[in-house]
Amino acid sequence: MQEKMMGFKCKKCGRVMYPKHERCLGCKGTEFEEVGLGDECTLITYTKLYALPEGIEMPPLTLGIVDFGGNVRALGQIMTDEPKIGMKLRPVWGKLRKIGEKEIFGFKFEPAKKS
Amino acid sequence: MRDVAIIGCGMTKFGRSPGDLMDILAEASLRAIDDAGVGERDFDSVYVGNMLAGELFHQTAIASALVDRINLIPAAAERIENGPAAGASAVKNGFLAVASGASDLVLVVGGEKMTGVDTDTITDLISTMNHPTAEYAHGVTMPAMAALLTRLYMERYGLTERHLAMVAVKNHANGMKNPYAQLHKLCTIEGAMSSVMVSDPLRLYYCCPIGDGAAAVVLCPLEKAKEFTDKPIRIAGFGHATDTHTLQERDDPAVLKSVKIAAERAFKMAKLAPKDIDVAELHDAFEILEIAESEDVGFFKKGEGHLAVEKGVTALDGKLPINPSGGLKAKGHPVGATGVAQIVELVWQLRGEAGERQVKDPKRALACNFGGFGNNTLIHILERTG
pLDDT tens digits for A103-114? Predict the structure, then answer.
């Protein structure tokens, strides 16, 4: 289990990337440090997928792209039946799907709790 | 570099084919060789565009098998794999072989056999083009990727579902006039808008079908083309560009930057501009892609592609007909065949041999073949000579 969703910050130009690249997408730098992407992100687009891939049991599977700010984004499963563009979400670790006999884990996104 | 001409072309009827992959590759190849009128002349090289032969049918090194089957021995032969852009990648390689002076007679064939395997397996294999950990692992499929792009368009540019349906209706109507098309079925706006939901907001009618097919072209130097045909079609330019593997990492996920850059490169090489194009075949694996590509290629302003569809600009009798063949939507999308089939259609259009779907007197044409989900794109520009 991972506690925080991590990105990779280029030590040369400071650009944060997710997923990992061997050379920076901005300056081609090759050294990175892991940085937390933060607890809050914004939904920029989503879909409810009815033609399900292997290892997902109940349709629909809601998928979306979230924005952490600073042009850092991630794609993942959205844990609500009522997704809305602009809604605030937060990453949570969990089971994504089963591929063959293997269970795949990663970060999904659930609505941020109102404080 | 030498000028390169297409002197022959041919394809199989797309859809469910009784034959195997090698049967359809051989059929399209022989049709193109016959159309080129090169008789029993020796070919210097053969490029075979294909994505899934090894994965689906347990056959590898298919280019060696093909040259044996149709006796093009001892031509140099290789398979080109570049996802759904394998076909155009094969054409590009053929072009470079002739342009460089290395080859004088080249066969390019693209083909895919996709039926006979269950749809889930095909959808899964195609989904493996996505980033393994940042996309595929989460359950995203190609229709889901297209749906994410569609919703961005709806939010930002006022695209509605009706516009997707209009593209489908247009392409089905064009496909009705194409004897090689997989789907010969008129579709209505209402029919499209009530078809089954695949990945909201994408319904079945906004996605291309799965099928079998192959398409082939024969290339030679333009200066020698007149020996074989009085209608050689010149490859005026190509552009090929890539973008980030994931959709989310693009500078702007609503912009198909690989399409933009590939188009800029192709226009620069051809010394032409988007306004010079009379007809285009765009990669509408999903109807949103025809709209987005029509903008990023440079035909329409960003965010206005759907308005052009609405006004009939892209219809068969419009100012810039797009996908007269029926596009991937109606003609079908046997992935490795598509990039070559687009060029075959445009050759027929430029020669004035497209029958009922003939566009009025086109002189220049553009094809866009799109790989991954927009991370690897090829553009070719063709021109009538004489």
Answer: 999 999 999 975
Interface test with B, best of A16, A45, A62, A102 (most B CBs within 10 A): A45
Cα radius of gyration rounded to whole Å, chain B: 19
Contact A87, A42 (CB under 8 A): yes
Whether residue B147 lies within 8 A of chain A, CB to CB, comes out as yes
The C-alpha torsion from B225 through B231 and B234 to B240, rounded to 10°, is -110
Does B209 lie at the interface with A, CB-CB under 8 angstroms? no
pLDDT above 90 covers what percent of chain A?
86
Fill in the amino acid letter for A48: K
Mean pLDDT, rounded, for A7-25: 97
- What is the tens place of the pLDDT at every residue in A25-73? 999 999 999 999 999 999 999 999 999 998 898 899 999 999 999 889 9
Q: How would you write B24-66 as a 3-class SS string?
A: HHHHHHHHHHHHHCCCCCCCCEEEEECCCHHHHHCCCCHHHHH
Q: Annotate A3-52 with three-state secondary structure.
A: CCCEEEEECCCCCEECCCCCCCCCCCCCCEEEEECCCCEEEEEEEEECCC
In this complex, do B138 and A76 lie within 8 Å of one another by their Cβ atoms?
A: yes
If DSSP codes are grouped into helix, strand and coil, which group holds residue A56?
A: coil
* Separation of alpha carbons B35 and B125, rounded Å: 35
d(CA B150, CA B247) in angstroms, rounded, equals: 13
CATH fold label, A38-115: OB fold (Dihydrolipoamide Acetyltransferase, E2P) (2.40.50)
Q: Which chain B residues touch A18 with a CB distance below 8 Å?
A: 134, 249
pTM over 0.90: yes
Would you say residue A115 has pLDDT above 50? no
Asked if A73 reaches chain B (Cβ–Cβ under 8 Å), the answer is yes
Interface ipTM > 0.90: yes
pLDDT at residue A114, as a whole number: 57
Q: Provide the mean pLDDT of chain B.
A: 97
Three-class secondary structure of residue B339 per DSSP: helix
Domains of chain B: residue spans and CATH: 4-117+210-225 (3.40.47.10)
pLDDT at B386 over 80: no
